[in-house]
Amino acid sequence: MSDRPSDAAAAYWQANIRLVLKLLVVWFVVSYGCGILLVDVLNNFHIGGYPLGYFFAQQGAIYVFLFLIFFYAFRMNKIDREFGVEEKE
């Protein structure tokens, strides 16, 4: 038995890591970029009476994070189907 993973398993893992890295970039941009670095620029716009920078720092980032969780689950289900490792219901 070989310790080396099969090509399909390696491709599956690579697709998973690629997805996670893309979502981490979005997470970083929203939390650090919009919540800290770009807050002064975003404060020129208002949402619900609050400056957009404040909104992102307090609540907007949470909404994006929740979206990322659901998107990850949706996308991983699709990747699982592509590689034939989906869960049976």
TrEMBL record:
Residues spanning the membrane: 20-42, 54-74
Record's keyword terms, sorted: Membrane, Transmembrane, Transmembrane helix
InterPro entries: Na_symporter_ssu
Taxonomic superkingdom: Bacteria
Pfam families: DUF4212 (PF13937)
Domain (Sodium symporter small subunit): residue spans on this chain: 10-86
Protein name, UniProt field: Solutesodium symporter small subunit protein
Taxonomic classification: Bacteria, Pseudomonadati, Pseudomonadota, Gammaproteobacteria, Salinisphaerales
